[in-house]
């Protein structure tokens, strides 16, 4: 059995102390270069878990749900049985074919035509977000900017009332960052917050039935699976999945985008000079700083993988950022370069996973990032970090919880009619 070169340390690779400043990229690269698969102990369940580093192994596990199920969830930690039973009836915990049936209810909301119709209001949101900080010349970027667009967009799509935004985001932060004492007292509080999001979604469904309105929530409630409509509780589970997926990737990616552009001012200037680089810039940040560290699957039977004997019930941890810096897949993998061809980058990175659970809102996430980053580079010059950034305490999400920035408002270019150029 392959053993970890860091085994002399009391910590395993997926330990909170190792991730204090974000994903320990040097260690991950060294592990990938030395291993296809690696067994490590953990304190979360029986025995331990397998780490996977190579693209072909990650793809095999994520694309083969009959051998590697998602019904125990994507986290290394095991859910308490009474909570797991409820979660297993949600889309995120389902395997095909049931997963496909539920996913089909919302596929249409994230197709190109729907995004084109939504784009004007998204651009208005982005302008309002920068308007709120531009005159100050400084902001706390994560909460004042990075989270704002994905939060407003998903609330707009789902018909969440503005006065409920604070409640939903508090529950989301607690559920996704339960290892961080700024958001939760312990991991169990995170599990309970996930249930709280389900309860909110259940109430949202009931409110839509009483007060119908134009939203994806209404569309899902009116749709059918095998001839039956969703109950309020079933929609509540849906809501939990969509809110978490619809906010976290964009928030973390935008935080890392500003970090990298501040450390690569020549590339920020290039993006300001040529907005056609935006798609490539978005893909490069997603490659270089994978915002989701891993996805877990659980073996459904005894089998062999990468020369190792996997036992039924073993946890397999797919480290999504590992292929993203693999020199076999990318030239100069540890260099940040927004001029890489975006299609080639998308083809080889695994930031959004693969297989049946390939990110449902990937096109929405990319558009969120392009619009918000485009508004930033159009209106902000000379961004700089003020003070020490604070990383979220997590081994699942890689991002900042606080990033204080200062900047210079960029002079506004006026059109011939005297209006600001957009």
Q: Please describe the biggest sheet, giving its number of strands, its sense, and whether it closes into a barrel.
A: 5 strands, mixed
Report the CATH superfamily of the domain at 81-291 and 337-409. Cytochrome P450
What percent strand?
A: 5-15%
Overall average residue pLDDT:
91
Choose one word for the global shape.
globular
Structural class designation: alpha+beta
The end-to-end span amounts to 58 Å
Give the strand order of the largest sheet, numbering strands 1, 2, ... along the chain: 1-2-8-5-3
State the CATH class of the domain at 81-291 and 337-409: Mainly Alpha
| H and E string | HEEHEHHHEHHHHHHHHEEEEHHHEEEE
Low-pLDDT regions: 2-10
- How many strand segments? 12
The CATH architecture of the domain at 81-291 and 337-409 would be Orthogonal Bundle
Provide the helix percentage: 40-55%
Rg, Å, rounded? 21 Å
| CATH fold topology of the domain at 81-291 and 337-409 | Cytochrome p450
Number of helices: 16
């Amino acid at each position: 059995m392959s053993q970890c070169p860091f085994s002399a340390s009391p910590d395993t690779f997926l330990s909170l102390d190792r991730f204090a400043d974000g994903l320990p990229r040097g260690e991950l690269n060294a592990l990938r270069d030395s291993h296809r698969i690696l067994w490590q102990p953990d304190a979360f369940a029986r025995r331990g878990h397998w780490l996977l580093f190579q693209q072909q192994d990650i793809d095999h596990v994520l694309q083969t749900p009959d051998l590697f199920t998602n019904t125990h969830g994507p986290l290394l930690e095991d859910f308490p049985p009474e909570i797991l039973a409820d979660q297993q009836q949600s889309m995120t915990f389902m395997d095909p074919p049931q997963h496909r049936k539920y996913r089909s209810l919302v596929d249409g909301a994230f197709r190109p035509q729907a995004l084109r119709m939504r784009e004007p209001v998204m651009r208005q949101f982005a302008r309002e977000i920068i308007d709120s900080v531009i005159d100050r010349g400084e902001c706390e970027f994560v909460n004042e900017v990075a989270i704002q667009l994905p939060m407003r967009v998903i609330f707009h799509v789902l018909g969440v009332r503005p006065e409920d935004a604070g409640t939903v985001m508090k529950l989301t932060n607690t559920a996704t960052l339960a290892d961080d004492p700024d958001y939760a007292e312990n991991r169990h509080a995170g599990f309970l917050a996930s249930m709280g999001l389900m309860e909110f979604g259940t109430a949202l469904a009931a409110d839509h039935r009483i007060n119908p309105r134009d939203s994806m929530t209404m569309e899902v409630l009116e749709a059918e699976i095998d001839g039956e409509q969703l109950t309020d509780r079933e929609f509540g589970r849906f809501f939990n999945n969509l809110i978490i997926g619809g906010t976290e990737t964009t928030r973390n990616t935008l935080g890392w985008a500003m970090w990298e552009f501040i450390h690569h001012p020549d590339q920020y200037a290039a993006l300001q000079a040529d907005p056609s680089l935006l798609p490539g810039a978005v893909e490069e940040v997603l490659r270089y700083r994978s915002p989701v560290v891993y996805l877990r699957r659980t073996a459904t039977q005894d089998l062999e993988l990468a020369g190792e004997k996997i036992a039924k019930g073993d946890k397999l941890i797919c480290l999504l950022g590992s292929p993203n810096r693999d020199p076999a897949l990318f030239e100069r993998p540890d260099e940040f370069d927004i001029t890489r061809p975006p299609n080639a980058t998308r083809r080889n990175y695994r930031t959004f996973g693969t297989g049946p659970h390939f990110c449902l809102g990937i096109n929405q996430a990319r558009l969120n990032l392009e619009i918000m980053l485009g508004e930033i580079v159009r209106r902000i010059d000379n961004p700089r970090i003020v003070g020490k950034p604070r990383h979220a305490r997590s081994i699942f999400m890689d991002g900042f919880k606080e990033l204080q920035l200062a900047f210079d408002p960029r002079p506004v270019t006026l059109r011939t009619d005297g209006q600001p150029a957009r």
